[in-house]
Amino acid sequence: MNDTTTNDTTAVLRTRLAALAHDDDGMSTVEYAIGTVAAAAFAAVLYAVVSGDSIVGALTGIVQRALSTTF
Predict the structure, then answer these.
(1) pLDDT of amino acid 27
(2) What pLDDT digit, counting tens, does each position of 6-63 carry?
(3) What spatial distance separates the first Cα and last Cα of the chain, rounded to whole Å?
(4) Rounded to whole angstroms, how far apart are CA atoms 20 and 46?
(5) Pairwise CA distance, residues 18 & 13, whole Å
(6) Where does the chain cross the membrane (predicted)?
(7) 71 against 38, higher pLDDT
(8) Which backbone phi and psi does 47 adopt, to 5 degrees?
(9) CA 20/CA 70 separation, integer angstroms
């Protein structure tokens, strides 16, 4: 191979790699969908934890102590 063919091949490969690296069509939609699913799953876990009897009892105790404090 001569230098011109090698340079042309290198230029074509660089152009194709650059196009692949910058091709983000649809990525934002997928990222939002995954973020929404993750947020919903986190909310479900948080609700399950907070609605448990021990947490409700602890929060009720904290509120009662705060309301019964004398100034």
Answers:
(1) 62
(2) 778 888 888 888 877 766 666 678 888 999 999 999 999 999 988 888 888 998 999 9
(3) 91
(4) 40
(5) 8
(6) 32-50
(7) 38
(8) -65, -45
(9) 68
- Answer for the pair 55, 49: CB distance below 8 angstroms, yes or no: yes
Distance from C-alpha of 12 to C-alpha of 18, rounded to nearest angstrom:
10
**How high is the mean pLDDT of the chain?**
84
pTM, two decimal places: 0.46
Dihedral of CA atoms 30, 34, 37, 39 in degrees, nearest 10, equals: -130
Looking up tokens 């990222």, which residue turns up? 31
Residue 40 and residue 46: Cα distance in Å, rounded? Answer: 10
**In the chain, which ranges are continuous DSSP H helix?**
3-21, 27-50, 53-67
Can you give the length of the chain in residues?
71
